[in-house]
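Readers of this paper often ask what the protein records in our data store actually look like. Such a record has a labelled line for the sequence and another for the backbone structure tokens. Nothing more is needed to write down the fold, since each code stands for a local backbone conformation. The record that follows is passed on verbatim for readers who wish to inspect the format.
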Amino acid sequence: MHRTSVIRRAVLAAAAVALAATGCTTQAVGAAGGAASPSEGSPSASASPSSGASAAGGAEPTAPAPASPPAAKVLMAEGTENEQVREVQARLRQLGHFHRSPTAFYGSMTAKAVSAFQKKQGLSATGEVDGTTWAKLTSSSRKPSAAELRPPTTNELDKPDARCMTGRVLCISKESRTLAWMIDGKVVSAMDVRFGSENTPTREGIFKVDRKEREWESTLYHTSMPYSMFFSGGQAVHYSSDFKARGYNGGSHGCVNVRDMERLAAVFDQVKVGDKVVVHW
């Protein structure tokens, strides 16, 4: 009996030792029977192989991308208004890229002309004038004269009508919307003009200046008509403040409107009663 008890205690002690060993293994095994991941707080979790390699300097750092070259400084662009813009426009006009008189204002037409010049020169067609574009433009053109910087008309004169080539003539073109004061085939002065509307058209043909009025008010429309030179009944060449203010958004009642008072005043003093007037397409 005593011996049986001793044997039983020995068996129980051996079983306890085996159970303790099995319990340690169970804590290290996951539910699927694989090895459990170490917890985030364990030292092995805090040092991944990749971070360890970086920390040890084992991996080469990525080389930075090369820096882009600095953008060229823009000297003039849309919205700029100064005398250098006027010179740009005059030079572009010499080269056939700009088809109006210089205004000193850099608008969409100037940007388009600059872009065309840049394309021809093999430059990036930005439509803006930077240092490279300016250098190319000045080397490709000559310094504009005073007349090129401030020409007599915004609209380009067309070829004068053959009837304007002799004598003293106010040569008025409906196509180019210009008036050229000509003497013996040479243009003395030129200016922009506008004409009558469809309901009150300006008559075409050959006329003569039959009277001049430095100050005049229309008896029909009660509007001021300074520097009037009548050539066909009530139709006359005269200054129009409305033309100056609204441009071609308006029209006359048949007269030839001029918007440059100073230029017209000078021509008014030169023109004589009896001088020829030619209105043509």
User: Anything to note?
Assistant: Residues 79 and 106 are 6 Å apart (CA to CA). The mean pLDDT is 81. The chain is about 35% helix and 20% strand. Residues 2-27 form the longest helix (26 residues).
